[in-house]
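Per reviewer request, we include the raw input and output of the structure prediction for the construct analysed in the revised manuscript.
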Amino acid sequence: MGLISYLKKMKTSQKEAKLLVLGLDNAGKTTILKAISEESIKNIKPTEGFNIKNLAVDGVSLSVWDLGGQKVLREYWSNYFDHTDALIYVVDAADVDRLKEAGEELSKLLGEAELAKVPLLVYANKQDIVHALGADVVTTNLKLDGIKDRKWMIVACSAKQKEGLSEGLEWVIANIKRN
């Protein structure tokens, strides 16, 4: 086998996937992305636009897009929907006052034709904060049980303590491999 044939075979043997990481500002999207890519989470600033990380996890090459969640930026999220293989929606489970807003934004996303049938992982983040809501309460508030058109999962996590992140990522990878 020639070198070019070998390289082509290597490239096609690894599945490639695009993940969108969305959620309101201050939910912890960038912290999660940095934590799963083994980067320092000490000096994180609000995302003004987007961050992209390329990761190789369990035989899947991931292109992970972390989009800013400020209200003014949300209208541009749809520019990034093309070819999305999984949606990761991050909720600040300690910010009870914004949970309704987070649910409304998620509902809009799930109604987007370009995201139809795309698997959804919800991270109920900031579980390291004493008054954070558990995954069951976040599920109820976001009305996740009403989702019938796609596979979904919710994981309680703490990006700062790197707890729950691998469980969610493993679920995403398993669903990407199935498709």
